[in-house]
Amino acid sequence: MKSAMRTVGMALIVFGMGALRASAQAPSIQADLLKDWTSLKDTMHKIATEMPDDKFTFKATPAERDYGQQIMHVAQVNAMLLKALGAKAPAPAIDMKATGKAATIKQMDDSFDYGIAAIKEQTDQTMMQAAMNPPPFMGASTRARVVSFLIGHTWDIYGQMVVYLRLNGKVPPASQRP
Description:
By secondary structure, the chain is mostly helical. It has a single domain, classed as dinb family like domain (Four Helix Bundle (Hemerythrin (Met), subunit A)). Helix content is 62%, strand content 0%. α3 packs parallel to α4 and α3 packs antiparallel against α6.
């Protein structure tokens, strides 16, 4: 009987420890979006800096944005749509007249920093609440949807920037091998 009780007791301890570990690692919408956003900032900074200064105004066709304009587009859209999260963090003043590699990349980095601050202010519950004044093309949306849209939008621009780099004989940082 003592052996059986000891076995049951050990099983309860092991089960309880597993439950504690599982609860400590519970999924979180806010944490997942923050992780993805922070990683995307790093990825975009790396690809933005990869283009040489003298090629920063390169565009594949006359109708397209040039490389620097792609970066400014990301900065502008990030700063504009992140306001829908209703964060207390102040939105950066994106200078759409910024030119040159360093100034342009700073605008983009500032927009990502604003996103980090705005997402950090959220909880899983607030992420599921309605966004404040989302853009009309999105219609009524949760705050999580706004962040998800921005991540997708930025990856789209990233794909265009990859083509620009490759047309200039450069390998995107994510594809470089040591």
